[in-house]
Design a protein that fits this description.
Elements (H helix, E strand, L loop, with lengths): L4 E6 L2 E10 L2 E14 L6 E7 L6 E5 L3 E3 L4 H12 L10
Antiparallel strand pairs: 1-2, 1-6, 2-3, 3-4, 3-5
């Protein structure tokens, strides 16, 4: 699920999206800004994902930016929900 999901640190902030190869860098398809959301009742902090201004379908990330491929199914699920509105069903038995 997270194979082509990339997190890039840019001057705009931390951006997540699906990687597409490009020359001298790569593109992020359906990019989202990652931001912290704190629950005042519990004090816990979660990550929120929000569209970039103008809602671009592709965002070029130069190869000089720091980036990495996350290995976190919950983050991949959050990205999927933010781009499609779908929620993955659990296949585990309770």
């Amino acid at each position: 699920m997270t194979d082509d999901l990339i997190i890039a640190v840019t001057p705009m902030g931390t951006i997540i999206g699906k990687q597409k190869e490009g020359k001298n860098g790569f593109y992020l398809k359906d990019p989202r800004i990652v931001f912290p959301v704190q629950n005042p009742e519990t004090g816990q902090t979660a990550l929120g994902l929000q569209r970039l201004p103008g809602n671009p379908s592709l965002l070029f990330i130069p190869s000089s930016n720091a980036y990495y491929a996350p290995d976190d199914a919950a983050l991949a699920d959050a990205y999927l929900r933010s781009t499609t509105g779908l929620v993955l069903a659990s296949s585990g038995s309770n």
